[in-house]
Amino acid sequence: MPTLLAAGRHDLADSEWSVLETLLPRGKKAGRPPKWARRQLMNGIRWRTRTGSPWRDVPTAYGPWQSAYGLFRRWQRDGTWKRLLTALQALADAAGHVTWDVSVDSGTARAHQHAAGARKDDAGQQEPPGGDGAPEPADHALGRSRGGLTSKFHLACEQGQKAAGDHRHRRAPPRQPPVHRRA
């Protein structure tokens, strides 16, 4: 497939797409070909996750936002994203690009008082938050402590990157007083 005319600077390069295309699932139905190329939709999904904007703001160069969102959710539900990540990690590991040094850090965050108002029954929720249909693990919850509702979180970083908690060991450079000049 030729490169898109409206390709942005963060869109998949031809070399990246050639690797990724072989890992994507094949269509199961015969019939009319899709109107929007998968590469376009993937670039739209990448644009949306990179910018954090609403789905409705995905540029039209990537196809309709509904198509990009539909592909994203369909692959989230059936586990395609997890399989892609695992396959890409295996390729990178085989090429020697991954060092499996892992740093772990944890912390707690205070939750807002309205955070405890979620539905208790899974059946009453229209769609599970993870999207893959699996029930929420029993240990995912808000805890009550003397400080109120809290939640513990963990962060794992690889490739020699510093974990979030490492910033407390760095000191800021001393602040210089402003220089006042006399006229």
Polypeptide structure, described:
The longest helix has 15 residues, at 80-94. Strand 2 and strand 3 form a beta hairpin. Among the domains are: 14-25 and 34-94, no CATH class; 99-111 and 143-162, no CATH class. By secondary structure, the chain is of the alpha+beta class. It is extended and about 60 Å long. Helix 2 (38-51) packs across helix 3. It is built from four helices and three strands, in the order H-H-H-H-E-E-E. It has a three-stranded antiparallel β-sheet with strand order 1-3-2, with no helix packed on it. It has helices spanning 14-23, 38-51, 65-78, 80-94; strands at 102-110, 143-145, 148-158. Helix content is 29%, strand content 13%.
